[in-house]
Amino acid sequence: RRVSLACAWSMEMSTPDLSQDCVGVNVKIKTHSGESYEGTIYGFDADQGIFVLYEPSDLRNRSNFRVFKTDCLMELTPTKAPPTRLPPPLHPGTKLPKINTVKVRENVINVSRDRARKLGQDVTIEAQDIFDALSKTYPCAWDGSNIIVLGEVRIEPPYTTEKVTAESSRGPEPSGGKSIGDTVERVKKVLEGERKKMNAAGKKDDKSAPVKK
Q: Would the pTM count as exceeding 0.90?
């Protein structure tokens, strides 16, 4: 939808009206998804229906710029925050870069598919936690309730170091410059370390409930 091009707010107003005249105004916004942000309007493009919110940072030479579609706004309220020193402003006639919505949609779909592949079917929460932890170090995949690491190491329930073995299809030949035995030992060490972290974080309680699909 096209938002109204007005910026004559009172402090009580919370309607999402924007125009180029609003650049430099400190605002608090709330999106339809319930997220809230506060900052300074840095740029607005009526043709594309997008605006940029500038968020100063406590870190030197660091700031956040958030790009929003105007139709995602539920509330937009001016604030009494002190004036913000903005980076060099955009010229009123400057067009913001077009968003490749097709590419963004593809990325979202790919991320969703990748996450779906990493979710075990009918496995315990502990099993999923272990899988996610190992995935930060090695490529992992599910084979039923078993975790396959690097395509050549199998971890069977209950996912202890005693259950780490070489895949039956692999022989003792070197793998990536190392023998399969060395790879198994490395995976055991990583698994042992991740289990210790989980226990320290209080994740050793009962986790027999299956992961929600």
A: no
